[in-house]
Design goal:
mainly beta; four-stranded mixed beta sheet; 22-stranded antiparallel beta barrel; single chain; 701 residues; 31 strands
Length: 701
């Protein structure tokens, strides 16, 4: 999906997700870096929109419009999870979240404004782990047995502290043009829990952690976006030109850990690496009506061009984070690391030039037609194009049909092209072994059959209708069908003695135990429907709004690339796309979601109730040796409530809760709950933190 802010492309994060279940292999836009009190509304274009807006728009476009209202607002809220956690028979109170917001808006004449704001968010961690039975990766020594029955792991939310700032302004000029600028900044410090390391294990030095230890990952995220532009009119043209700079920097650290191969001299805190992504975009857009013979009404012409420059960099961690020390009976590298090595450092750039044209007109009074085309040139992988044809037919004043056919594309990100990481451990007999995540341009990856990444290409078909028989009721229904070719995934971990011998003989590198790399491995097909109905009616002394929404989407793998001949010669088959990755794409997420909400508001108070039902999900693990346990997590329904009172015109107080009935997903089976340490799986959309309650105070001035 392509994300815009005030119509301008938003940059992505610098970190490529390689270990998570969902989103694996992606570097998405970080929505948490956009302050909530900066948002006026969110627009969603669900049709394929690559022809109008460019790459990443296969699934559609999300456009976040920033606040431009006059006046100020301050808000303070606090919430906490309060839940009965059955696996340990505990009443837990955690996940405390404080949010403080402040903003002010000024007006300049009729059209000018300047808005500025700040936001502070602090979220405490949660833990929903079960009692440890220590049969997972632990020897039954007395020291390890002493940890039995304790909550040693930490499954849940990490802690996070965000400090945000933003502004949004527009100033009319004497020439009739308008100068505008907006920006956001986010600084986030976050922590995450990793697996527990037992006292007597190759991961630990007992003199340092006699009771075992659980490393804590630490991230420092800095996210900046700035846009400045000028818009105006010249002759029959309306024009807009802008410059946008986006940057994401992430520093990855570790504390409460150890590099056991260094012995008792090992540090317990490590710097694992730095990641940075920069994006600079220059845009010029213009539009005008054209009077053309043969057309009953004017044809609206929109044209535009964009130049974009992107840069992705990684830098290594400190030497102790990846070192293989003298104690070969112990694991090398920082536990829960290791850090990026100097040979893993990446520095990649690309330039992208594009141009588009868009024509729309009413062929008849009832029929609106739009045709768009776009061409893009990438300095690192070539040319691509997209087109779109859409129509809206107003059958009656209350009923309209709409449909669109388009093709789109998503270029591989710089991180997917150039990301590299190495983890080193001691294998059998104390021999060093390395696991490599390789860019496709790596000589080793090439020798194993890796191909240069291509753009993902899609064909998007959609048809639907809108129905508004009376002013108080409206309904939209949209069916969609999306085919994606050459979808990018990460291969399975390819490992074995034949691989190790091949890399040693061909490249002189010893101890390479396994590799993986990005690949255009699959084609997918997604089909579904979105339905939204809204009813508004006066009720008692206030107004009642009822909303019903339903969505269904099913994704299937339509084709899998054959294993390269180079890998087949080494005895590997079906390694580009594995069992777990198929599960992630096809059925790890619920196919259906339904929402019923009621919002009643009067002059001094309001009530909101929302019932959300998530469909079932499936989890599949591949533990090797043909052991592939599968579990179905049944559908769950969540109830959210909020009540707000306004004792004064500009002052309000609210209390509310999400998942107020304290619902949990199904318990994971013994095959996949890691000896009881993880009683619930990460896949459930309802989450496993339980009920959350909050209070909020807000004043406007």
């Amino acid at each position: 999906v392509l994300v815009l802010v005030n119509g301008k492309r938003r940059h992505t994060t610098s970190v490529t997700t390689t270990e998570a279940k969902t989103g694996r292999g992606t570097a998405p836009v970080d929505f948490n870096s956009i302050p909530l009190n900066a948002i006026k509304r969110i627009e969603v274009l669900r049709d394929g929109a690559g022809a109008q807006y460019g790459s990443d728009a296969i699934a559609g476009v999300i456009n976040i419009i920033l606040d431009d209202s006059e006046g100020g607002e301050a808000a303070l809220s606090y919430g906490q999870n309060r839940t009965k956690f059955e696996p340990t028979d505990q009443n837990l109170h955690d996940g405390g979240t404080t949010v403080a917001q402040l903003k002010e808006g000024f007006r300049f004449g009729e059209d000018g404004h300047f808005n500025v704001g700040a936001e502070y968010r602090h979220h405490s961690p949660t833990n929903r782990s079960g009692f440890d039975t220590i049969i997972f990766q632990a020897d039954p020594t007395p020291a390890n047995l002493a940890t039995q029955g304790h909550v040693n792991y930490a499954a849940g939310d990490g802690g996070a502290l965000d400090v945000d700032a933003w502004f949004n302004g527009r100033l009319p000029l004497s020439s009739g043009a308008e100068l505008y600028a907006f920006g956001t900044y986010d600084h986030r410090d976050s922590t995450g829990a990793t697996f527990f390391r037992y006292p007597d294990s190759s991961s630990n030095v007992v003199s340092v952690y006699p009771n075992g230890f659980r490393p804590v990952s630490v991230g420092t995220n800095k996210d900046l976006s700035l846009t400045a532009g000028v818009s105006g009119n010249a002759a029959a043209w309306s024009w807009d030109t802008s410059l946008t700079f986006g940057q994401n920097k992430f520093a990855y650290d570790l504390r409460n850990s150890i590099n056991a191969s260094l012995g008792a001299a090992s540090p317990t805190s490590f710097h694992l690496g730095d990641f940075r992504f920069d994006q600079l975009s220059l845009n010029l857009d213009a539009s005008r009506p054209l009077s053309l013979s043969g057309f009953a009404q004017a044809v609206n012409l929109a044209v535009g061009a964009e130049y974009r420059h992107e840069k992705f960099q990684t830098q290594p961690g400190d030497p102790a984070s990846y070192a293989a020390g003298p104690f070969t009976a112990f694991d090398a590298g920082a536990q829960a690391g290791p850090g990026l090595q100097p040979a893993d450092a990446a520095d990649a750039t690309r330039s992208v030039g594009s141009a588009y044209v868009d024509l729309s007109t009413n062929l008849t009074k009832a029929l609106l037609v739009e045709l768009a085309g776009r061409f893009e040139h990438y300095s690192d992988f070539g040319n691509t194009g997209a087109g779109k044809l859409s129509a809206l037919f107003q059958v009656t004043p209350t009923f309209a049909l709409r449909g669109a056919v388009s093709n789109s594309f998503r270029a591989p990100s710089l991180s997917q092209i150039s990301y590299k990481a190495t983890s080193t451990s001691f294998g059998e007999g104390g021999v060093l072994a390395s696991l490599l995540t390789l860019p496709v341009a790596s000589p080793i990856a090439k020798a194993l059959g890796a191909q240069d990444l291509k753009a993902e290409k899609s064909v998007n078909l959609s048809v639907g209708f809108t129905f508004a028989p009376v002013d108080s009721f409206n309904m939209t229904v949209d069916f969609f069908h999306i085919k994606v070719k050459d979808r990018i995934t990460i291969s399975e971990r390819i490992s074995g003695t034949d691989l190790t011998s091949f890399i040693q003989s061909q490249f002189g590198l010893t101890g390479i135990e396994g590799v993986n790399f990005f690949t255009n491995a699959i084609d997918t097909r997604t089909k579904g429907v979105d339905v939204v109905a809204t009813y508004r009616q006066g009720f008692a002394p206030g107004a009642l709004k009822l909303t019903a929404a339903y969505s269904y989407a099913k994704t299937e793998v339509d084709g899998v690339r054959a294993t390269p001949a180079q890998l087949q010669a080494l005895g590997f088959n079906d390694v580009l796309f594995g069992v777990e990755e198929r599960n992630t794409i096809e059925d790890a997420a619920p196919r259906s979601k339904a929402i019923l909400s009621a919002d009643w508001s009067a002059q001094t108070y309001s009530l909101v109730a929302r019932l959300t039902r998530y469909g079932s999900a499936v989890r599949v693990f591949d533990f090797g040796g043909g052991f592939e346990p599968r579990q179905v997590y049944s559908a769950r329904t969540q109830l959210d409530l909020e009540a707000e009172v306004r004792p004064l015109k500009n002052l309000s107080f609210a209390i509310g809760g999400t998942n107020v009935l304290d619902k949990y997903p199904d318990r994971s089976s013994d095959d996949i709950n890691y000896a009881g340490n993880f009683p619930y799986d990460v896949l459930s959309p309802i989450g496993f933190n339980g009920a959350y309650f909050y209070a909020r105070a807000q004043v406007k001035f």
